[in-house]
Amino acid sequence: MYRWMIQGFGVGLVSAVFACATGVAQADGFSDGIDKLSRQALLEELESIPPDVRVMMNREQMARFIANVLVDRRVLHAAERAGVAELSQVRANIARATRDIMTRAWVDGEMVKAEANLPDVTGLAHERYLVNQKTYIVPEAVRVSHILFAVDEDVEGKRDAQAKARAMQALQQLRDGADFEALAREHSDDPGSKRTGGEIRGWSEKGRFVAPFEAAAYALKPGEISDLVRSRFGYHIIKLHEKREARQQSFDEVKASIIAALRKDMLAEKRAALLKPFQGRQPIEMDEATLEALKKP
User: Fold this and answer.
1) Distance CA 274, CA 267 (A)
2) Structure pTM?
């Protein structure tokens, strides 16, 4: 959301075009050669920047921010002289922005207070863990690489016999000591893993692969290379890097995530309770004629 701030620290759309980093500091403020921005005014403008972004600003970024503010203020004066503030759409947008900012600030402030008063839920977290231990099992998984020789009966050169012959030749090269990654980069028809030397990045849990591939992968020992494996995609040569057995996570391993989830649920309930008194008592009713009339600009 604040990436544009980090990159340019712009205040508005217009000033982003004219951004520069030439603000000159003076005793009574900062000048860009046309106008000045007092230190107090700058501090007020900086309130719009999230603290975690503001603390990252270097000298050049701060100067650019000041330059943007000064440009925006001059453009604003031009817009005011042109009577833009009297346009109905502008007034509506200002009113909506004001409403959104104020309501969000109030709700966020109330939720900060609510979060500070949440009870210690460690005991409740342990209860949830005991009741749902199956949820906290690290599943069995493997890390594998493969070389695919695709089979597509509709494309010349990809017929089954031809793909199988290429796969057998590569398999023999591997058995003779060829490098798996090099062969994958040269021969694999899987564009996703070809760039990584055949490696399928990360742990692959059961159910991720098609049945023949999965059965062959889980039957291997770390470092082993499979025979040819035929799937609906073609012929695979699979190399197993590592196998992870399923295991039960301890409460200490998952405590933080359970507590975070409980606190999130509690805050959601408190937010709903906070807003409930402001909810209407009946649905809004409207006939088609009224709807059509309202839709017209």
Assistant:
1) 10
2) 0.68
